[in-house]
Every structure is written in C-alpha cells, then in structure tokens.
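Hi team,

Below is the intake form for Exopolyphosphatase from Candidatus Lachnoclostridium stercoravium. Please confirm the fields before the structure is written into the shared record.

FORM ID: S-0412
PROTEIN: Exopolyphosphatase
ORGANISM: Candidatus Lachnoclostridium stercoravium
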Amino acid sequence: MAVKLFAAIDVGSFELEMGIYQISPKDGIKEIDRVRHMIPLGKDTFNEGKIGYDLAQEMCRVLADFAKIMAGYQVDGYKAYATSAMREAQNNQIILDQIKVQTGLDVRIISNSEQRLLSYKAIAAREAEFNKMIEKGTAIVDVGFGSMQLSLFDKAALISTHNLSLGALRMREMIAGIQAADEDRIRLMEEIVDNELFTFRKLYLKDREIKNIIGAGEGLLYLARKTGEQARNYINAEEMMILYNKLAKMNLSQMQETFGVNAEYATLLMPIGMIYKRVMELTGAELFWIPSIRMGDGMAAEYADEKKIIKSQHDFSSDIITAARNMAKRYKCHMSHIQSVEKYALEIFDAMKKIHGLGKRERLLLQIAANLHSCGKFVSMRDTSECAYNIIMSTEIIGLSHEERKVIANTVRFNQQPFSYEAVRENMILVAKLVAILRLANSMDRSHRQKLAECKVTVKDGELVVGTGYEGDITLERLAFEHKIEFFEEIYGIRPVLKQKRRV
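The structure came back. Fields below:
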C-alpha cells in the first residue's frame, strides 16, 4: 500500500494546531510537520457564551493558511475537529459556516467523549508501554483548557471514565477578577481542584488502588520541559512534587523563559500543574508517565485505522462495552439478565443482517442499550424508562458522540414505553430498529432465569424463528414474546416466532 499524507487540525480552546503525518503499513505513523497558532477561543466562550467577531476572523485567517499548507503537501485526507470552546459557544453553527465559506474546510465539533477517545487512541498506539502500564491500577488524566477527563483502568480493562470541569483556562477565568496575592490565588485554585477531586475519589476510588498515572493534554508537554534537567517520560511522586514546587515559586516571566511559552500561555501552567499534582496525591499513585501525545496523533491513528492502513491491536469497542457494563453494575442491574438480553439481542441482530441493513457501529449501540436497559430501576421502579433515559444522557461513555448516546437513551426509553414517532425525530428509523430488537430480546428472559440460553435464531421462510430445546415451562417468555411481535413486524416486515422443541 502506498504512503499516505494526512493532516490533523485541532481547533482547541486556546490554540489552533495542524499536524502533517506520513502513514504507511511499514513505517507506521510519523509526524513530518506541525504548525500552531495561539488564540484564546475559550476565553470568549467561557466568559461571554459565544465567540466574538475578531477571534472568529482571526481563526478563519489561520485556518485558510492551514488549508494552503495542506495543498502544498498534497495531503490524501484531513480531519478538522473542534472541542470545548466551539462546543459550548452559542454561535458555533454560524462560526462553522464562516469557516467553510472562507477556507473551504469542514470542521466538525466533537463531543467530549469522542475527544478523549482520540487521546486514548494516541496513547494506546504506544502498545508496549501502554499495555505494561495498565496491568496495574492506572488512571489516564487528560487535562485540557476547558475540562479534564479521568479514565480508570484495572487489570488491562477500562473501568470507567469521567469528565470534570477543571480545565486550565476555565479555572484561570474563574479567579481572574479576584484581587489577591499569588499565594492566595494558588490556594483558591487548590480549593477549586480539591472540591471536584474529593467528590470523585469518594464516588469512584473508594475500593480502587491507583499505581500509575498516564498524563495527557497539550499543557503537560510544556511542563515536561524542566530547567536544567533532561526531559523524561517517567517521573515518580517525589519528582512530581519537586517540579510543582519549582513551578509555584516562578513568576510569569520565569515561566515564559523556562517553558518557552508566551505570557498568555504561561498563566495556564500553574492550574495545569496543580491538577496533575493533586490527582497524584489523592490517588496515591507512584509513577507518572508522560507519553507526549497530542490530539492530532489520535486523529492520525483514527484515520489510519479507518483506511485500513494500520490496524490497532487494542480493541476500543471492547473498552466501550466494559465501561457500559461497569455502569450497569453501578446502578445495581441484574447482571445475569443483562448478559442474557445482550446475547439474545446480538443473535437477533446477526441473524437479520440482510434485513436490517445496519453495520458494526449500530450493533455496538444495541449492545450498550442491552447492558443499560434496566439502569433506571436504581432511581425509580415505577418510572424506569424516563430515569434510564436521563441516566444515559447524563453519563458520558468514552468514544460515543452525543447523538449516539441519544440513540442508546431513546432505545432504552422505548423498550417499555409505547414507541413515539413524533418524540424521536432524529435517527428515528435507527432507534425504531434497535427498539424492536431490544424488546424481543428482553422478552426472551422475562422470568430472569435464562430459560432460552441455548436457543438458536434463524431467518426462514419470511419468519424470524427462535428455537429452543428447553423442556420446562416458558409461559412467561412466550406471553412476553407475543406482545412484542406486532411492533417488530411493523418495523421489519418479518414475523418473529418462538418454537419450543420437545423431546419425544
């Protein structure tokens, strides 16, 4: 396969950045050029709720220059992603249209969970180091300008991931109007950080041991440049404290000189350093790994995988499912029932490939919905559907867009509620197809006793045949199954049939 050139554009909260990558099966992913321009989009968004005219025009001029550089390299493909500043701006659609008209670039606003997955993919691309780190309790701490993400691993599996409003720029703006001495401002920032992290530790770290921290985020790359020392990828807890104490004693000009940044960026280093330092203290982690990755590295890895140039050895879909299962456990779902519904739903989905026309991604969404379909019972036994919908919409699942999460939430919502074509206007057909399968799968374990565990699902003569050799009473399953037939037939034009084969 020929070498591909790829451009990754990151429209961040504090800077615009473009990396040019050379991708080939033989040599992997290599960065060959990088350009960046500092622009505080997040300052406008976090203070005013929208991006102002002057910054919008500056952004368009820089992106137009990026487009010219891409043309000079004759890139084979590009991705342009915008994150929290654009995501939270009230006028983001207007800005995206201006960018398209003035530069020809299609910029896509990605959800926080999609953004963090890109960082995760960039880290996982360093397979040997990454796999070794996550053998023990590990947290990926990704500190951005608008927020931070904490992803927990245990025994090489992703346990959960959580977003906290502790971005460096957001923190700086919170105390910008406070007149106080430097030591008092540092104390105030520490109180802000501790308020979020103490709650996180109480909820999610109670019975979990964290040995390693993997640091991600643009600001961390600058903090790694230590005065008079050779930059290293690994530092221990004691060295982290030494680095932080050095940082705390520096004035603004010293930070600029030490870390090679301008004054605007230098004001963000203290919040960034404090967050990493406090995370390490509160978790009791012993080792801090700085893999020196950027979001563009994850975009390049994503492109290489999509184009089948380089196949990742890490199964990110499995991580998403693991996170969903741990979420189900957190809300005290009946796990043996959850596993059965997941099994039946996937068997129905796979048997009907030629009928439903859906792909791997939709199969993953169905699988997540099956795992979370009863999480609402944790809040209310009477209003389960609405509670489940709200839980899913309020919980980020790494790697899923907001729209995908909404598909899952609506699939779970209408698993029990009468389906409303008016209520589900976006992705209505997809939701209806997933609901029909989930309802049928759920009915097959109505007694929660896994009576149809050995069933076989086939499509034959215009019918979806669920055959079981179970010899006991399946009256509950049969009644529930029959109640789901009408909607399934309405959506797919094929009639489900439950057949019990009895031995003579």
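SUMMARY LINE: The chain has a mean pLDDT of 89.

Thanks, M.
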